[in-house]
Amino acid sequence: MTKPIQIAIDGPAAAGKSTIAKIVAEQLGYIYIDTGAMYRAITLKALDEGINMASNEEAGALLMETEIDLQPSENGQLVFLDKKDVTEDIRSQNVTKAVSEMAAHELVRLRMVELQQQLADGRGVVMDGRDIGTHVLPNAALKVFMSASVEERARRRFVENKKRNIETPLEELQEEIAKRDKMDSEREVAPLKKADDAIFIDTTPLTIRQAADEILRLAKERLS
Ligand code: DC
């Protein structure tokens, strides 16, 4: 059997990374790791416990006493925070608004990268996030940087939210996405950035299936 590879998918908020990464992982029989869910989980705990979100030390200490677990299921990846299923809770607007501040802390990132590298060690994985190709899996056989216009990303999020009965106006989503992009790209530690050896895919004109097929084609090239 061919040796499995690691696939890193990075890009800004709501570019379709997780939906596409899940399809690619499923087709290859690999595990899928949504690193954004891990940052969202620690953000949820920080909000619940009322810690000072601006403090690198407080955030880092909180993470050291926290257990975050990702488990595949028939309905997609489940996220457990200290053994409690928080798969839905981490998608709330409160968490979405606060997560970029939490993800900017150096102590949080150091620990998360360590956990993510352990999860990926020696297996076929598709991992999505912001710093996977640049920091978490610098030796990944395939790196993709995926984006789409901010208007298109807000429109997709709007449609997705509607299905889950979340009614956030389109303009508000566009503003939130643009703000998060800015914070994630301008932070000092491991900012959102295309790795030099990543392949850029603009998903604006593509369907989910087309984007997934393009990544599968690239993956098969590396596997052969
Ligand atoms: O992919 P997402 O929207 O669920 O990610 C939530 C936030 O987590 C995102 O705004 C930035 C942060 N993040 C990060 O800094 N590094 C990662 N590898 C993944 C996510």
Put the structure in a nutshell.
By secondary structure, the protein is α/β, with parallel strands linked by helices.
Blueprint of the fold:
Layout: E1 6-10, H1 17-28, E2 31-34, H2 35-49, H3 56-64, E3 68-73, E4 76-81, E5 84-85, H4 93-103, H5 106-120, E6 125-129, H6 132-136, E7 142-147, H7 150-163, H8 170-186, E8 199-202, H9 208-223
Parallel strand pairs: 1-6, 1-7, 2-6, 7-8
Antiparallel strand pairs: 3-4, 4-5
Helix pairs in contact: 1-9, 2-4, 3-5, 4-8, 7-8
The chain binds 2'-deoxycytidine-5'-monophosphate.
The site of 2'-deoxycytidine-5'-monophosphate has 14 residues, from helix 2, helix 4 and helix 8.
Bound molecules: 2'-deoxycytidine-5'-monophosphate
Query: How many domains, as an integer?
Result: 1
Helix content: 40-55%
**Rg from Cα:** 17 Å
Mean pLDDT: 95
Please report the first level of CATH classification, the CATH class: Alpha Beta
Strand order of the largest sheet: 2-6-1-7-8
Account of the protein in words:
- With 224 residues, this protein is α/β, with parallel strands linked by helices.
- It has a single domain, classed as Rossmann fold, CATH 3.40.50.
- Helix content is 51%, strand content 17%.
- It has helices spanning 17-28, 35-49, 56-64, 93-103, 106-120, 132-136, 150-163, 170-186, 208-223; strands at residues 6-10, 31-34, 68-73, 76-81, 84-85, 125-129, 142-147, 199-202.
- The protein has a 5-stranded parallel beta sheet with strand order 2-6-1-7-8, sandwiched between helices. The chain has a 3-stranded antiparallel beta sheet with strand order 3-4-5, with helices on one face.
- β4 and β5 (84-85) form a beta hairpin.
- α1 (17-28) packs across α9 and α2 (35-49) crosses α4.
- Residues 13, 35-36, 39-40, 99-100, 103, 129-132, 180, 184 line the site of 2'-deoxycytidine-5'-monophosphate.
